[in-house]
Amino acid sequence: MLSNKIYLWVLMSVTLTLQLFLGQTAKASEITEVIDNQVNSEKTYLAQTGDNLNFGDDLAQVTSISQLSDVQPTDWAFQALQSLVERYGCIAGYPDATFRGNRALTRYEFAAGLNACLDRVNELIATATADMINRNDLTTLQRLQEEFSAELATLRGRVDALEARTAELEGNQFSTTTKLNAEGIFVVADIFGDERANGGDLNVNPILANRVRLNFDSSFTGRDRLRVRLQSGNISGFNSGLTGTNMTRLGFDANTGNNVEIDDFYYRFPVGRNTTAWLIANGFGSDNVVQSTFNTALQSGGTGSISRFGRYHSIYRMASGSGLAVNHKFSDSLALSLAYRAANANNPNEKAGLFDGQQAIQSQLTFQPSPNVGLGLTYVNYYAPSGAVNLTGSIGSGFASRPFATDSATLANAYGVQASYRFSPRFIVSGWGGYTNAQALAGSNEGSKADIWNWAVTLALPDFGKRGNLAGFVFGMPPKVTSNDVASRENEGTSYHIEGFYRYRVTDNVDVTPGVMVILNPEHNDNNDPLWVGVLRTRFSF
């Protein structure tokens, strides 16, 4: 961003150069020192003030410094302004006779002022008849050019090398419109415990598995994004099939049999200045629509929490599949997001399609009065036909995911609150709580209702021990059915999720994360023994 101070610096540089060319005794090194000092002061000024670029009013030419009412002899740039106005006649003021030296200026304003000075200099040199410039001055200029020919040649060589390097980078880039980034995860993991959550021996062996992702991000206007993600992996979920509960699932499990699949496909684009819209074909977590700061340090499956539960609130998993989303910012601190998702939108069969199958409407009001504080209020209206009900995204107990019989179409209204507070850049506390009211619309449990609750508290310590590292902790209660008209599908005990991990940054492209989580009273059954999950995750990125 260019401010009037940089404007003055450039014009002062022109003045100093003219003085040098006109026979002044200043040495080149002295001129360079003056300019370098001014550049450094401008860098400091911009870093402290964060000047922005704004379009201003029409400018009016002035011929005397006294015409600028807000320029005083005590101002730091008064002499430079006076010289540029009265000696070279190339400074413009505003119609109200002010210069406004402390406001930001546009590139158009800067170009106009600089062009005026250059035109004036060219005019003086071309005529060479004024007292300011004569033939002797031109001879001096020629001598100076010869004296500094070596320095000028060095400068030209550096510019040529920079241009060659730029051409090489442009010639070897992946695409002019598409960026490629990739992630590869290798994990060693195991589960420890006396028995499965639903009884029986825990016959689970250690695993060594992988997940690979290639993200192709294209932009056509510079403000939009078309993402296509290819994914392959063989990380089996530590789910109810192995442990008797989904509470032990990893946050990055993906089992495609190492076949390549399109895991993420969406187009994001702006609608005006304050609104962003998404067209979603598949993938793309609804947590991304809210664009909030909640729990972001733990949110990524590759770099954050090792568990599926610890990444973010399960309410965001209710809206999935193809659909449309929009986020509107009322101000820098207040935003509203809306999304409609259908899990089987591409299937024209009965109890599927865009409106007849599993579907959800998600909305969230996000309030962020400062970069350190965030609060979100979320509501989801969810419907699923019989056989497709999953109210928790396979995170909590089996009863919480499906509170009624399999032949029961289910309607649910879910409410969630998310909050985050950053005490410092290296100490962030986040958390969430949620309540879901579910009702069976058809089937053997028609008319039955159930209440489901969940909550969590998380702690993130970025740059713990080293820049790029992260220590994270999660404690909470996975989704639990606290009351149900179908008494046999009500959770009587309480499970607790306890997790800790430490991501160590080996290089800019490699990090290693050891972590452990324990599920107390799995499936909200106080008679079940704890289940322990140990993980060593290694991530490569480029």
List the helices and strands and how they pair.
Elements: H1 4-21, H2 28-49, E1 60-61, H3 78-86, E2 92-93, H4 107-127, H5 135-147, H6 149-172, E3 178-192, E4 207-218, E5 225-235, H7 240-243, E6 254-255, E7 261-271, E8 275-282, H8 296-299, H9 308-311, E9 322-329, E10 334-342, H10 353-356, E11 359-370, E12 373-384, H11 398-401, E13 410-424, E14 427-440, E15 449-462, E16 470-484, E17 496-507, E18 510-520, E19 531-541
Antiparallel strand pairs: 1-2, 3-4, 3-19, 4-5, 5-6, 5-7, 7-8, 8-9, 9-10, 10-11, 11-12, 12-13, 13-14, 14-15, 15-16, 16-17, 17-18, 18-19
Would you give an account of this structure?
The protein has 542 residues and is of the alpha+beta class. The chain is 23% helix and 36% strand. The protein is built from 11 helices and 19 strands. The chain has helices spanning 4-21, 28-49, 78-86, 107-127, 135-147, 149-172, 240-243, 296-299, 308-311, 353-356, 398-401, and strands at residues 60-61, 92-93, 178-192, 207-218, 225-235, 254-255, 261-271, 275-282, 322-329, 334-342, 359-370, 373-384, 410-424, 427-440, 449-462, 470-484, 496-507, 510-520, 531-541. Strands 3-4-5-7-8-9-10-11-12-13-14-15-16-17-18-19 form a 16-stranded antiparallel beta barrel. Strands 1-2 form a two-stranded antiparallel ribbon. A hairpin with a 7-residue loop joins strand 15 (449-462) and strand 16 (470-484). Helix 1 packs antiparallel against helix 2 (28-49), helix 1 (4-21) packs across helix 3 (78-86) and helix 1 (4-21) runs parallel beside helix 4 (107-127). It is elongated and about 105 Å long.
